[in-house]
User: Which sequence fits this backbone?
């Protein structure tokens, strides 16, 4: 008989969690409950996204600054080049440094109006690599960047996309976090191609537990992620069954992580969508347990 599922995981993993800035008091409460639930797992860092076109600039800053102030978890702020001059972006980065934030997820961002071609803002950073170079000149930030196992839609081909990732790492980024994907081989192929291109920085898989299949399909279509046919079948008929859908979502994401673990992946980044339960359950299945002291430090 084969070993029971998850019997071979040892909990020797490192995790990080991504949140988006809350839009209302209610959402803020949910976010803080999630951070409190997940923090005993001892994440390496938690990160907060930056809305398209800098629309969440204040809210992202307030959320990251509060995490830095009130918890012991290292906080990372996402920052994009969209609709801002270099001076404006440098100012945001300076404010983070002053608030004790030492980690930036440096991104180009998407065009402010969906469907338009990306255009560099006059006087702005040209792309993520250029932003990494700019941040490096300001302070010794830890910098993470984005990577695309299924190739970014703006890239002419996968090779050019990996060259772009290499430019970001060579400019001073320490880690790449991937776009979400659903087949482990997609990640393994990409990791091999990065190694062949001489990229030795950490490539951390971004894990998206599927809370809402229709919205994941929409997001996947925009960012070029393949949604396997078998996955659609597994979510069929669950629209009116949120609890069952959660269980299916946790099972699928945990199974993806288990296969990645079997392929020597030890770092995982979770797109939490500000809900703790799914990410917590998946971490638990991977053998991660609350760390003594982490809960107190997070309080
Ligand atoms: P870049 O690395 O600059 O590249 C984008 C594309 O353009 C690549 O295909 C690259 O090959 C091509 N390219 C860039 N420069 C050149 C060049 N000089 N020559 C040739 N080709 C070039 N978006 C947000 O708005 N807010 C967020 O908080 C956010 N967080 C994210 C977190 C993660 C982990 C990931 C994976 C994505 C995130 N995004 C976020 C989405 C991201 O902003 C978009 O995917 C965006 O379209 C590309 O950003 P980038 O940093 O990857 O861009």
Assistant:
């Amino acid at each position: 008989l084969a070993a029971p599922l998850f019997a071979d995981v040892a909990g020797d993993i490192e995790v990080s969690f991504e949140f988006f800035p809350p839009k209302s008091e209610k959402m803020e409460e949910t976010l803080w409950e999630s951070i409190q639930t997940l923090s005993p797992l001892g994440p390496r860092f938690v990160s907060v996204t930056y809305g398209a076109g800098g629309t969440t600039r204040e809210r992202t800053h307030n959320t990251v600054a509060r995490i830095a102030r009130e918890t012991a978890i290292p906080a990372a702020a996402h920052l994009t080049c969209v609709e801002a001059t270099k001076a404006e972006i440098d100012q945001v980065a300076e404010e983070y440094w002053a608030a004790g934030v030492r980690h930036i997820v440096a991104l180009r961002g998407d065009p402010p109006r969906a469907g338009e071609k990306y255009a560099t803002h006059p006087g702005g950073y040209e792309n993520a690599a250029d932003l990494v170079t700019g941040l490096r000149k300001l302070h010794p930030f830890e910098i993470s960047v984005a990577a695309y196992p299924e190739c970014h839609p703006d890239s002419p081909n996968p090779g050019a996309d990996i060259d772009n990732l290499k430019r970001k790492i060579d400019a001073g980024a320490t880690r790449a976090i991937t776009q979400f994907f659903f087949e482990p081989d997609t990640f393994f192929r990409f990791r091999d191609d990065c190694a062949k291109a001489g990229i030795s920085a950490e490539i951390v898989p971004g894990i998206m537990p599927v809370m809402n299949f229709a919205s994941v399909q929409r997001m996947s279509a925009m960012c070029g992620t393949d949604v396997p046919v078998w996955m659609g079948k597994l979510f069929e008929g669950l629209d009116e069954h949120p609890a069952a859908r959660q269980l299916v979502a946790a099972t699928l994401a945990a199974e993806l992580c288990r296969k990645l673990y079997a392929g020597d992946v030890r770092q995982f980044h979770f797109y939490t969508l500000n809900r703790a339960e799914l990410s917590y359950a998946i971490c638990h299945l991977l053998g991660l347990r609350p760390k003594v002291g982490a809960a107190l430090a997070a309080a």
In short: The two ends are 45 Å apart (CA to CA). The first strand starts at residue 14 and ends at 19. The longest helix spans residues 242-262.
